[in-house]
Amino acid sequence: MDGRRTAVVIGVNRSDADVALPSLRYAESDARAVHEVLTDPDTGTFDPATAFLRIGDKADAWSLRSLLRTIAIESTRSDTLLIYFAGHALTADWNGVVDDYLVTPDLRRATLREHPDEGLRMAFLRGDVLDKFKGTAFLILDCCRAGSDLDGHPQQIEMMPISGRHSKQHSLLMSAPTEGSAREHESVGHGLVTRHILDALNGKAADDEGRVTFGRMADYVVGQDIDPKPGQFVQSWGATKVLTRPGRAATGAGVSMSDPLPADVRIVPLENPLERSAPAIIDLLSQIFPPHPSTARPGTSSTTGAFGATSEGQRAVPNNDKAELLCAAMRADAAALLEYAGSTFRTISATKHFHEDDLHHLLRRTEHAGTARVLDGGAAGRVLCVPLRQGMASTLVLVVVNPAQNLLDMGEPLARILETVWRIDLSGPVEKGEIEVLTGLRQSFGRLPARLYDRCFELYRKILGSFSMVFQPIVTIDRLPRQVEIHSYEALARLNAADPRAPVDLIRLAHVWGDTFVVERDKAILRKAIESYDEAHLSCFGDNEGAPRPVSINVAVRSLLNESYVDEVQRTIAGAGLRPSAVTLEISEQDPIAPRIYEAWGDDSLAYFHQRLVAIADRLDIRFAVDDFGVGHSSVSRMAELPLTQIKVDRALLRHPSAYQELALVASVARQPVTLGHAAVGRSVVVEGVEDDSPITLKEIYGIGIRHVQGYITGERPSPVIKREMGREMRERIAALVRGDLERGYAADRRDERRTA
């Protein structure tokens, strides 16, 4: 079913004098002409109410970004979006960092250097519009002089290679490939490419039914005698989308038309092999993970299922309960867990109606115990066997007797679902369990049908919304007790405030699903962290106790490249009334700083990302830190070259044989801006995970020149509340450890205290 059809048609003749590009004659009239043919009451397929024409001064970058982002956010899988742009395009190449822009009347070259996100950036169209738009999208660019002379170096625009993203329903037609420049011509009164686009839409590319699809239009335009040749990439979804219906009479002579298909021939589009199984998968998961279970005990949270966590804490799910659960969910007669060893097997657990004697002649065949299979037992029925764990001497196999036929029709995906359900802990929220199953399918089979992707995304958003935040203090250490104090806090996500464990698996699985999940995760954690910290500060200090201490929040590299995340940071901080400069975003060293295959960052990725962070900091006045130094993609160059105010050393580094030397190197790099005269104050260094038995003592850490630590050695555990100050006794003990007065004796005492507790 066809959903909303939206067009955004843009034309810009003149740019600001600062950009130093010649004015165009026909870009704005070309946009009007394209808008008219798309919305023609007789032949167009777009409603004038949802076909937006933006020309001249009304085509400013801010309003275009706002319009396009709203369209993308509100889209559904059945929607269609067409974006047409006529005007100049330029490439800014500063110190090897390449950015492509469509030139709007408000574009300022000087401002762009300081704030590269203020123009209509191609990275924005890709990341915030096309990547977010759920339906089928078309981008048509008729860009004159597709380049710029910034810094005296002529550069040609690098159009985004959408063809690298086979999973997106986007198609592209651009007026000039790399190394080419589009042209206007007075004799035709149009840009040359738009002239042929209009001819195609008005009928010269129509099929036998008098319809013009995007694919036929693009083929027609590319087939014309245009130098340089336009570039195109047409996805299979886009090839059949009808843009206009001018009728057969408009096709004109000389246009090659294909012969009609024979009556007994039909075209069947290729589909995702899991598409047909998607309804059965959703039904099965709904049975295994019921959203409103009637069997939950009193006190069970709204996000837990029949086997979920309760107010009394989490409870393990026995194997026989899992067998009962899966038997009921699959509408089967019985289920059992068998252990195969050598030429024999034994039943470990089974449902009430499992009769081993009736099935022994089928189950005794052990040679295929290691592969998922269906055994046809005639009158005994069909038996699904799924290996769950294979060891050197034995194999555990789940046996399901007479499951629903539509589930058996799934084939291998059913086996993957059952393996995952048996492996995962069902004592947590039902959303978590279902997300883990869907993630297992994605890891096994790659791209999933849109309905499964959307289901997982909504489940992920729901469980993110249920997160609680706790705050762990970062403590300033000193030899004098009065100088020992809470410097700032780090916000940490938890499934609930009473759970000391971080939901690491839920946080990391976003990377399996891609940038949309990563950005949504980071936005949810940001909102929850800022709002919870504001509440904690008011609860502790009241309204008249000054500004809150600084707080740091984790963020992924990909989120910082996304405009919607940056907008969320600005809105959330403003809504809470915090000082932006008191917020630090911690960039994990476990994230690579590298472009996707469809992005062009230039030769120096660190320089590109540096520029991005500078632009965000200038706009929002926030701070950045590097987190988890010592693991993942950490490097001295990454630490030294990014505009950071803080470096956080991962706890794993403390156990390294050369930990002392590594910490000394970090401290030296942190002081580098002062040493080189680039700043009056160096970056602060925080050592994470400092414990009583850490190989590196507080005395050694202090001696290196590091003044901040985070960990249980401070006596401060993560909590949803914050403190005015540390207790006197703890300040004195930390000061004594820094001086070396207590060292190992204190560590031993603390370990004894923990054992006793």
From TrEMBL:
CDD domains, per database record: EAL (cd01948)
UniProt cross-references to Gene3D superfamilies, sorted A to Z: 3.40.50.1460, EAL domain (3.20.20.450)
Family annotation (Pfam families): EAL
InterPro entries on file: Cyclic-di-GMP_PDE-like, EAL_dom, EAL_sf
Chain spans, region Disordered: 294-315
Domain EAL: 449-731
SMART domains for the chain: EAL
Protein name: EAL domain-containing protein (Putative c-di-GMP-specific phosphodiesterase class I)
